[in-house]
Amino acid sequence: MRPLVHCGANMCYVSPPGSSNSSSLPYYNKQQYDQVTSTTGGLGRSNQPASSSTNQFYKFDQSTANWSSGPIQRVPPKEFAPSPLSMDTLEDKPKPQEIPTTTEMSSTPYQSFDIFRRIDEHAVSVSQQQQDNFNQLIWQLIYARNITDELEKVRVIFLWLCTKDLHKMNFDHVKPDSPEEILMGIRTGKSTYAQIFYTLCRYAGLHCKLLIGYAKGAEYAPGMHFSGRQGQHSWNAVLIDKCWRLIDCHWAARRLIGKRPSPDNVRYGLDMFYFLASPSQLIYTHFPHDPDWQLLRHPVSLKEFENLAPVKSAFFKYNLDLVTHRNSVIVCSDPEVRIVIAFPSDSKNDLSFTFGLSFDNQEGSEEFRGIPLTRFGRQETLIREHTSVFYIRPPRPGAYKLLIYAKQHQPHQNGQKEGLGIVSMIPDDLSSENLFGAVCEYRLVANFGSNCSLPPFPPCQSSSYGPNEVWQ
Predict the structure, then answer these.
(1) In the chain, is it the N or the C terminus that has fewer CB atoms within a 10 Å radius of its CB?
(2) Which Pfam families does the record cross-reference, listed alphabetically (predicted)?
(3) Contact 312, 216 (CB under 8 A)
(4) pTM, entire model
């Protein structure tokens, strides 16, 4: 079951899988929540190839842009003076009651491999150059190539922003409240990626909204409660072909590397999941203060958002499903807990899984009495059931942090990075067949008696049982 897009005269909304047009119940009640994460096509599943879906919305052969191989005119004409869209017209609120029709579509309609190749090459080319002022930047980015298609504009702005080293960008004679001041403000923390994207969209003639809310970022831990400025983040909604779509340039340009998420473990790369992300998927990590901008027919509450397991972008890339545990905190009264994640039956998705286990305290120790905590767990791949099963035996009562990782063995043909139209120009750690990427995180609270714990599993080379990477 795929998400549903409800299109009206001026906007589109996405309903989560398992929701209904006529339902007046909040979509994340127990019964509906089970439907969202069911293995029959819930969280992240889509049976429609991204490339075929993209072609329904974007016809690159009908583009009005000048994609000739020659260099662009770097300096704009003297009469070039772009004027931004009025802020009053940029932020029209979505109105669910104005959605008369329902159309089924893929949850990731714009993420095929080759369709944006020319746009991406242009964006990266501009990002590798230095511009003297904002007029020159927006000229080179949009108007020098005569880009008029809304999707092309959004794509080129997104990729420029994600590939540009903003901390090295410099303009002369910067005036207060000017676009130049906003772009340079990223170096001092006065501006955000979302503000820069918003500014570029205004001058490109795009309707855009700056969204403020909570996000489960580098400093988030499962079970955390959001209040005040803790966990505050900004991202964008942009109007493309009368549909509001969600973008987070900051998260697209930043990647978490390392066992313990923290600001020190953030490195730069590119994660295309956050380019026009599905609202029913982004809600697991992004919660706007204005519920209308969840773009869900049945918005979730803050408490429901806090309870959602913080699945990562790799979770959706690998088309996984949560089978047994959907909340971020697992309370186990038994000495062993069984966690099941489903993966696609398609043989193209050759996945391996592993996990990391640590005490959820200030030290974050990964050992218990000299024994690695991973000895108190094992992972088993059940090929016929298309599931990965994790058995965790907490060695003592208390709180633990459980991170589940996955990686795909299938190499990308011709060295191409998935979800990016250009080849080998930008690192994408998710596409590396040699590295595991986090797909889900839990806080495990063991409250059984101190004498009820089970012994660790026998030592072996790997904590994975059954068919694995070596077997394949």
Answers:
(1) C
(2) Ig-like_KY, Transglut_core
(3) no
(4) 0.79
Q: How far apart are CA 342 and CA 41, in angstroms?
A: 10
Q: Which residues contact 466 (CB under 8 A, 6 or more apart)?
A: 380, 381, 382, 383
Rg (the chain; Cα; Å)? 23
pLDDT tens, per residue, the chain with 472 residues: 334 444 343 444 444 333 333 332 222 333 222 222 332 333 444 433 333 344 445 555 567 787 776 788 888 898 888 888 877 665 565 544 322 223 333 444 444 546 788 899 999 999 999 999 999 999 999 999 999 999 999 999 999 999 998 888 888 889 998 999 999 999 888 999 999 999 999 999 999 999 999 999 988 999 999 999 999 999 999 999 888 999 999 999 875 555 555 545 445 578 999 999 999 999 999 999 999 999 998 999 999 999 999 999 999 999 999 999 999 999 999 999 999 999 998 754 588 999 999 999 888 899 899 999 999 999 999 989 999 999 999 999 999 999 999 998 765 544 444 444 443 344 444 444 468 889 999 999 999 887 888 999 988 766 666 655 544 5
Beta bridge partners of 7: 12
Query: Do 294 and 28 meet the contact criterion of CB atoms below 8 Å apart?
Result: no
CATH code that applies to domain 310-472: 2.60.40.10
Of 174, 175, 227, 217, nearest in space to 193 by CA = 217
Closest CA to 274 of 430, 125, 129: 430
Measured in residues, the chain has a length of: 472
Sign of CA dihedral 67, 68, 71, 76: negative
Domain ranges of the chain: 1-19+27-308, 310-472
